[in-house]
Specification:
The protein is of the alpha+beta class and 127 residues long. 24% of the residues lie in helices and 34% in strands.
């Protein structure tokens, strides 16, 4: 199944408008992007940041807080490929690792940037 995503929660690796190819087979692994139904009935495509035998936690790469925990049965499919001008596999170990690093650092970098830009525009420097 192919789905065109909308929203900002998975940027910068999966920007709004990206097409992801999902597979209903295989168990989700740490770092996978999964399509899941949250307890509030919303569908999300977010990255797996933790899991145990019956629960899973996901988080958008650009989000500060995690979804979940929710039951693993809520996972509908795993993303296996980002399609477009550049087609990238998403389910290999390197892309899952890169995704986890971005998931951890990107929200912090954006926060620092947002704090610094107003100061730089006003000409403030730290001394």
């Amino acid at each position: 199944m192919r789905i065109r995503l909308s929203g900002w929660s998975m940027k910068p690796l999966v920007p709004s408008g990206s097409v992801l190819r999902f597979s209903g087979s295989g168990e989700p692994s740490l770092g996978d992007v999964v399509l899941a139904r949250l307890p509030n009935d919303a569908l999300v495509a977010h990255r797996v940041i933790a899991l145990d035998s019956d629960r899973i936690w996901t988080k958008g790469d650009a989000c500060r807080t995690a979804d979940g925990p929710f039951f693993r049965e809520s996972v509908i499919a795993r993303a296996v490929r980002l399609e477009g001008r550049i087609s990238l596999p998403l389910s290999n170990v390197w892309m899952r690792a890169l995704g986890l690093v971005v998931n951890r650092l990107y929200p912090r970098l954006v926060g620092v940037f947002r704090a610094l830009v107003p100061r730089l525009v006003r000409g403030e420097t730290s001394s």
